[in-house]
Amino acid sequence: MAVEFKIAGLDYRSATVGVREKFSFTESGRRALLREIAPRVREAVLISTCNRTELVVVSEEEPAWLLQRVCGEGSFFSLSGEAVVERVFEIAAGLHSQIPLEDQILGQMKEALLLARQEKVCGALLGQLFQRAVTAGKEIRTKFKALPHEASAAAVACAEASAFYKSLKGVRALVVGSGEMGMTAAKLLVERGAEVRMTQRRRRKDGVRPPSGVTLIPYDSRYEALRECSLVICATASPHCVLTAGDFADDGAKRLMIDLAVPRDIDPAFAERPSVTLVDMDGLGCKALPEGFLREIKKSLEANIKRFHEWLDVHECVPYIENICSFAESEMIHGLCCESEEERLRVKEASRAMMNKLLFSMKKGVDMDMAKKCYRALSKGVQA
After folding, report:
1. d(CA 180, CA 198)
2. Is 374 a catalytic residue?
3. 159-175 pLDDT per residue, tens
4. What is the pTM of this model?
């Protein structure tokens, strides 16, 4: 592979939630990191979710060093070349998520790509890689939608609560956070018969309203509501705990508290109370996909990865082809003694059409490596 892709970071397999939260980024933090490393990379995209912080680059610099430069010391895994392409596609497919095939990662990858483009550190290479990976991820979920599994952390949390209480009918529940995860959790809890209250700091810009049966309460009333609820699910984007043990005296009531956020929303000190069962993202576990399904998913990904490499091969040849075409245009215009702008334009268009047909037909007659050598040699010859 002529283009050297690199990736470094950590995920739930290589780091605990306590470590991951130290390397978690808000949107402003992601922008700041990309701006910091921009002079040192050709392209970069940063994926930062509750499961992972991974920096993908096209650069001579090592992304692990770039992360350490901004974040401080960390034990980051590193991959390069073909392994990076495979990992990005597998991330989009949900194969590296704690909840296999979960849907949220697709939106997170699209957001990461958009932010990198806004910061002008993402070009054609990572743009195509991420776009094609997200498309493949959508295809995977459509193809294997019949696979029985929970498709989100919110769904797994509700299943955990159902098992804990045997039945959620009549259980008073508090959901802290009215984002996508909080909305999903609230909806699933209502469907299972729970009495649900959900905090809301401000009205959502997208106009989404809470599910029917959910009572909205002010965020500042969360501790008052907590005292009346035996089930709590937290899912905010706060950089610090939104429920602290110091602000809530132990009343001895039996509670299940589930923290879906990274950085964590719920003070770990709650776990020291005998009456409280505290579960974080790592505590929800990771259920492996059946081997047969996993093989089929990877087989489907291989076809998408192959198409990406076909695009990459052509992309790498474009500069050589452009040099050859430009030379041919110039020679023909000079040789035909074109005087008017209209004549030069016609000859230029005819020359480019002829050269494109000739040059692109070359890669059909020989293997791609040989075609690259021919394009490179011709380009070098016309520039001599």
Report:
1. 12
2. no
3. 999 999 999 999 999 99
4. 0.78
